[in-house]
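FIELD: query
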Amino acid sequence: MAQLVREESAVERLAPSPHFAIKAVLFVLLGLLGAEAFWRSLGYMPGKSDFIHFATQRTAANGDRSAVALIGSSRVRYGLNAHSLERAVGGRHFIQLAILGNGAMPVLADLANDAGFLGRVICEFNPAQWAAVGPDSKLPDALAYTRPQMNGAYLETWLGEHFREHFSFYSYNLFTELPRIVQGKPIADPERPDRSVVFHDLGPKINQVLLEGWLRGTDESAARIKGANSAQTLRQVHGFVEKIRARGGDVAFVRMPVDGRLRVHEDEAFPETRRQIEGLRGDGMLTIDFADMGWHFFCPDGSHLNTPETERFSGLIAAELLNRGFFK
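FIELD: result
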C-alpha cells in the first residue's frame, strides 16, 4: 500500500498543474497579440479572404436578371473592370467571378447547372484552359468553398478564412513581406469590393521574371491538354450555354489580350486557337477575339493588362457587346 501511495504521489508531481496550463494559454495569447500589434504598427490591416468574397459575389449573382458574371482566369480579374463595364452599360450588375490561376469552365458549369442563376455571362476563352469538365475534375478552391461539406478539411478551411478576415498576422507572411518592409515599398493593395485586381508595373526586371514564368506555364498547359477533344469541349460548352439561354440569359466569349513574346509563344503552343474560336462562332455563340479588334493592348508582363489598358479594353468590350445586342 505504501508503495502505491508513493507511485501516486510521483504521478501527481509529474502532472502539470492547472496554473501551468493557464500560464501557457496566457503566454500564447500575449504572443499572438504582440504579433498582431507588430503587423498593424507597420500599416498591415487584416487581409480579406478571397474565398469568402467569391462566395458572397457568387450568391449575389443568383436571382438577378440584370447580373452579368465575369468568369475566367487572372486575365479577367486584371483586365475586365466591373465598374467600367457598369458605367458603359446601364442597368446591368457586373459581378467579378474570375479565379486566379483557374480557367472559366468550372464556373461556367456551376452557373449553367444552377437554376437560380438568371443572368448573363462574359466568359474567357483561354486556349490553355479550353478542355471539357469531367466528373472527376477538381473544383477551384474558391468555388469549392461555396459548397459546404461536413468534414474536417472544409471546417479547417472555413475557420482559416474567417480568421484571416480579422487578424493581420494570419494574413501576411513575414518572409515574403520582409523585402517590402525593408525597402519601404507600399503595402500590397487590399482586396477591392469588386474583386478586380490592379496591375502594378514594377519595371522591366520584374516583368521579365514574370514573363519567363508565363512562358513555362504555357508549355506546361500545352503538354497537359495535348490530345484534348475539342469537339467534346464544344458540345459541353454548347450545353452550358443552352441551359443559361433557356432561363433568359446568354453567354459571350472573350479572348483576353496577351502581348509580345508571350503572344507569339501561345500562338505556337496552341495552334487550334483559331479553329476553336470559329467553332464557337459557328455554333451560334458570340465570341470576341482581342486579335480581331485592330488595337494593341499593352501587357507589361505579357499576360495582364496595365491599369489604363484595363479601362480601355473594358470600354471596347462593352461597346462591342452593346452593338451586337448582347444585353437586350
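FIELD: remark
Residues 66-135+194-323 form a domain with the Rossmann fold fold (CATH 3.40.50.1110).
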